Amino acid sequence: MRKPYNEKHNTFTEDSLVAKEPIKQFQSWFDVACQTPNILEANAMCLSTASKTGKPSARYVLLKGFDKEGFRFFTNYSSRKGIELEENPFAALTFYWEPLLKSVRIEGAVKKLPAEASDEYFQSRPRSSQIGALVSSQSQAISSRQVLVDDEEKLTKEYADEKIPIPRPDKWGGYVVIPEVIEFWQGQSTRIHDRIRFRRPASSEEPDGVLTHQGDEGWIYERLAP
Ligand SMILES: Cc1cc2nc3c(=O)[nH]c(=O)nc-3n(C[C@H](O)[C@H](O)[C@H](O)COP(=O)(O)O)c2cc1C
User: Fold this and answer.
1) Closest CA to 5 of 78, 99, 80, 92
2) Does residue 168 carry a catalytic annotation?
3) DSSP-derived secondary structure letter, 201
4) Is 155's C-beta closer than 6 angstroms to any atom of ligand 1?
5) How would you write the pLDDT of the chain (226 residues) with one tens digit per residue?
6) Closest residue by CA, ligand 1 atom 7
7) Which of 69, 73, 143, 201 could form a disulfide with 205 if both were Cys (CB 3.0 to 4.6 A apart)?
């Protein structure tokens, strides 16, 4: 498994930040990932949650939008992740874009999106995906695949008339992760990788200009050892 990182990747220095805040920086890396032909789903991210007793669990979900307010994804509110987010509303997101040797880590508090935002996204999805959301009691044990196939067939018939909108089930909707920490990792063939972490400062914290630097929009940033 020990493969060399053959390609040379540019070192990621403080001077190569496109902005002194992490949302524009994320946009810049995400755009490159989206334009890289052998990255099929640049928006796939590992979502880590934890139960109220601190037991972690992780799975992939798709990023469906981001801005200063946070990073949005959609799922089933009654799923394992939904239950964990209900009892412990904090999460971590991890991207890894292998051909670029780039990774981004995001941590923060999580909130449900307003119902209107979930409705809007639900209605923008293909009807087959909408029916899929209705069919699946995500994360519940079921007796066979046939149960899902039968439910899908029944609902496809029920909603055969495309003029009838499919209502969003209450159990399905969006979340936003409100970032408190965003780290950018750039792998290097030398294994002396680059890590620049933006975070919200603690209430009385003043950046010292040596280890910690003042960024824009209330962020501070620092370089971490790899
Ligand atoms: C690339 C990829 C993208 C996925 N995107 C989503 C998604 O956006 N929403 C979702 O609910 N599940 C998505 N899944 C399925 C989840 O990984 C997971 O199986 C499901 O959400 C149930 O997780 P839970 O039981 O931990 O709640 C995706 C899986 C993969 C591999």
Assistant:
1) 99
2) no
3) P
4) no
5) 777 676 667 889 999 999 999 999 999 999 999 999 999 999 999 999 999 999 999 999 999 999 999 999 999 999 999 999 999 999 999 999 999 999 999 999 999 999 999 999 999 999 999 999 999 999 999 999 999 999 999 999 999 999 999 999 999 999 999 999 999 999 998 889 999 999 999 999 999 999 999 999 999 999 999 9
6) 61
7) 201
